[in-house]
Amino acid sequence: MKISGAEAVIRCLLAEGVDLIYGYPGGAIMPVYDELYKFKDDLHHVLVRHEQGATHAAQGYARATGKVGVAIATSGPGATNLVTGIADAQIDSTPMVCITGQVGKHLLGSDAFQETDIIGISTPVTKWNYQITEASEIPEIIAKAFYIAKSGRPGPVLIDITKNAQFDEMEFSYAKCTSIRSYNPKPVLNIDKVKEAAEIINTAKKPFIIFGQGVILSEAEAELKALVEKSGIPAAWTILGLSAMPTDHPLNVGMVGMHGNYGPNVLTNECDVLIALGMRFDDRVTGNLATYAKQAKVIHFEIDPAEVDKNVKTDVAVLADLKESLTALLPLIENNTHESWHNTFKEKYEQELEAVINEELQPMKDGISMGETIEMINKHSKGDAIMVSDVGQHQMFTCRYAKFNSTKSNVTSGGLGTMGFALPAAIGAKMGMPNREVVAIIGDGGFQMTIQELGTIFQTKVPVKIVVLNNEFLGMVRQWQQLFFDKRYASTEMINPNFIAIAEGYYIKAKKVTKREDLDAAVAEMMASKESYFLEVMVEKENNVFPMIPTGASVSDIRLS
Amino acid sequence: MENKTFTISVYSENNVGLLNRISGIFLKRHINILSLNVSESEIENVSRFIIVVNTTEKWVHNIVGQIEKQIEVIKAFYHIDEETIFLENALFKIESSLLFDEKQIQNIIKESHSEIVTVSRDFFVISKSGQRAEIESLYEKLKPFGIMQFVRSGRISVSKSKMEISSLLEELKQ
After folding, report:
1. E strands of A38-155, at which residues?
2. Are A303 and A218 in contact (CB under 8 A)?
3. Residue ranges of the alpha helices (H) in A213-338?
4. Does the first or last residue of chain A, that is N or C, have fewer Cβ atoms within 10 Å of its Cβ?
5. CA distance to partner chain B, nearest, from residue A199 (Å)
6. pTM higher than 0.90 for the full model?
7. Where does the record place the ACT domain (chain B) (predicted)?
8. pLDDT per residue as tens digits for the range B64-123
């Protein structure tokens, strides 16, 4: 059967099980949109308000569901607008396939209308990219795109399709891609390394686990929990590992990193064995590498060989899919409780409670704190919501204080730190998990970077809950200016519009809270709403996030104030 | 950690855009590529990149890891000079009259083990293979007579020890 390349694109997406894509039409992608019109019952297209929103929505969908998110855009500016989301997905290992239209093959390189070299532009921020110039290439390349995006360490793939390839007819047949000779997504587990790791873990006096997103990506949550419970080893999360283990699990000791918990950071430099599970020793986690866990033997469970010894020198590297390596490790691990070592974590937590947490969650000051707002959401969500945070102080408060009962529930821009991520990502998360409550937590700065996606929420009626924590500042930068630049608040003060009027302009139910006594009822009303809801909380203007490891300092030098 | 010269060998598919992807990894770390050569390898449709850089062993380790994880890269290695046999190629274009007027040039050609690849009415071309120092010394010797054009290729090299990739490549051959 001969069909057009554009129809082949749709048939490939359907064959990959895609039923939802995010995008924005334009000249060079119109043949595909014409087919989307014909296939609208099978493949739902969500019209975003800016292509960046399409990528973040696809990311939110992917992070909440574990499936590949798909974004589609036209050539030129449509394609370049995808770049921030692609870079975000690359650094946070999010499976995403982006499809862009391109000018006809005969016009390539001629500076044609809306021509841009998106292959060149996207190369450093994609796991793989490819330009299709013949219709006949479409099935094989799209099959490869999905295989590459999802397998091994996931990431974004961009497929650029020239207009002639969309129009031209081709003989269609589809076969899923299952291997590529130059690509080895899952290293073969070396059981000797697992034995070596087990021996070190079993003889450790003060072992410490840090788990990252690898647990979620390989769906090894049950194995992680079993390992932690059997070994009794205190476990801490990286920002992207958050929700892989319930936050109230007694062996879950908190967050590592710049604004993580006091104990996990300080004790990184006191443990005798550091067990890194599916994490990559990002600089926001390690602080100064020269003083990071030097006393400890480091065991790194990792799927990506390029991450081993990249930042921290390991003693044992177990290269494999985490689910597989933990399954092999579990029977070799001896039961233990590490009671006195746990007590050290508890002591540190008490210190942090007194110095930081109590005042944040039950402030004595009049102004509402970000932490107490998150705590109020916990009260009403009971830890069952998917929390989508943007970037800045509110993000750190969310990751420090939000409660999570189940995995894939913390969606945030970790590695790239993309302001504007949360609003569109929440749309994707809610569409992917319609039966779960999705709450976006956003600052007044980041909200205005992708505020136009309120239009997408209005048009699709997707019932996301939006909380803007408004301190009328770019709060995180202001905090740094206060601490490290003598309070010279260069361009961090925001004079904001009437957000309630804007939300209401999009016919979204909206409420503003300025007093503590109104917070509980407002959050209750928001959570009970069957429709989308916008809640603006005016928070204390100059609150800071603590603890904090100043840039370049050691994890031991974490500041409580 | 001190900087050293490393030769990076990359076996890859022969696809459009891969050079850009690989060179981008050096760009990202602000490393200047000293020399680059891309050719077919011993396997059909498998390309071999030879890239020479001056950096620390830690960085070259990380870079090779990041190159190797690119989808279309089959395998990447790095070696120090002592572990490889390497050479470069150079061409010198010189005015033909000098070959007869300056008898010394013939001696220089003989002593440097270089060869004349073409002679025309106006110019002749000398080709010299060897290590950088040998080519530079020939250049210095010819310079006083006037060199019309000079070009030197990137380094090409083979490893002294067997590449771990050999068996993998055997599979690809079939």
Report:
1. 44-47, 69-73, 96-102, 128-132
2. yes
3. 214-217, 221-231, 262-268, 283-286, 322-329
4. N
5. 28
6. yes
7. 7-81
8. 999 999 999 999 999 999 999 999 999 999 999 998 888 899 999 999 999 999 999 999
| A451 and A83 Cβ atoms separated by less than 8 Å | no
Residues A374 and A330 in one domain: no
Three-state secondary structure call for residue B119: strand
Point out the residue among B17, B20, B65 whose CB comes nearest to the CB of A310.
B65
Walking along chain A (561 residues) 10 residues at a time, the average pLDDT comes out as: 96 98 98 98 98 98 98 98 98 98 98 98 98 98 98 98 98 97 96 98 98 98 98 98 98 98 98 98 97 98 97 98 98 98 98 97 95 98 98 98 98 98 98 98 98 98 98 98 97 98 98 98 98 98 97 95 91
Q: Note down the domain range covering A534.
A: 366-538
| B42 confidence band (pLDDT: 50, 70, 90) | confident
Q: Quick one: residue A17, left, alpha or beta (phi over 0 = left, psi -120 to 50 = alpha)?
A: left
Looking at the structure, do residues A390 and A531 belong to the same domain, yes or no?
yes
- How far apart are alpha carbons A268 and A256 in whole angstroms? 9
**What's the structural domain count of chain A?**
3
Q: Tell me how crowded residue A484 is: count the other CB atoms within 10 A of its CB.
A: 11
- Pair A429, A482 in one domain: yes
Helix axes B18-28, B57-68, angle to 10 degrees: 150
B57 touches chain A (CB under 8 A): no
Query: Which member of B16, B65, B71 has the closest CB to residue A127?
Result: B71
DSSP-derived 3-state class of residue A183: strand
Do both A125 and A266 map to the same domain? no
Partner A contacted by B1 (CB < 8 A): no
